[in-house]
Specification:
The protein has helices spanning 15-44, 49-55, 60-71, and strands spanning 2-6, 9-13, 74-83, 86-95, 98-105, 111-116. By secondary structure, the protein is of the alpha+beta class. The strands form 2 sheets. Strands 3-4-5-6 form a 4-stranded antiparallel β-sheet. It has a two-stranded antiparallel ribbon with strand order 1-2. It is elongated. The model has no long low-confidence stretch (mean pLDDT 77).
C-alpha cells in the first residue's frame, strides 16, 4: 500500500492500482510518440500527391496548357502521379471524338507520352474515376 499526497490529502492507493497507473502513463506516452513520429513522416513524405503537386516546378495550369496544345483539345481530367521516372501530370484531353492521355513532366513541363485512349476513355490506372 502506498500513500500519495494530493492537494492537501493523503490518498491510499494499493500497489496494483499504482502499477496500473504507471502502465497507463507508459501507454499514453508511447502512443503520443508514435503519433508524433507518424505525423513527422507524413509531412516529409512526397508520396502524397497534393504535397508533391505544391512542390512541382510546373503548375497544374501550365501542364494542362501544354497537354491541350499538344493534343489540340480541352482537358477533362488531370492528376499528379508518381510514375517510373518521377512525378508527372496525367491529363485526359478531348479532341473532337477522340480522347488522349497525355503525361507532362512535373519538373520540365515537357510531354513524356501521349496516346489515344480507345478503351473506356479511362487510363485504368486509377482506383475509381
Amino acid at each position: 500500500m502506498s500513500l500519495i499526497f494530493n492537494s492537501r490529502k493523503f490518498l491510499r492507493v494499493s500497489t496494483g492500482d499504482f502499477n496500473m497507473l504507471r502502465y497507463t502513463k507508459i501507454a499514453l506516452v508511447t502512443a503520443a510518440l508514435a503519433t508524433a513520429g507518424a505525423m513527422a513522416f507524413a509531412a516529409k513524405s512526397t508520396d502524397n500527391d497534393a504535397i508533391a503537386a505544391a512542390q512541382a516546378k510546373v503548375s497544374l495550369t501550365q501542364a494542362i496548357a501544354v497537354a491541350e496544345q499538344h493534343a489540340g483539345g480541352k482537358a477533362s481530367r488531370a492528376e499528379y502521379e508518381k510514375n517510373k521516372t518521377g512525378w508527372a501530370y496525367d491529363i485526359e484531353v478531348i479532341s473532337g471524338a477522340k480522347v488522349f492521355d497525355v503525361q507532362v513532366d512535373g519538373d520540365k513541363g515537357t510531354i513524356i507520352s501521349s496516346r489515344e485512349d480507345k478503351a473506356e476513355h479511362d487510363d485504368g490506372d486509377d482506383k475509381a474515376d
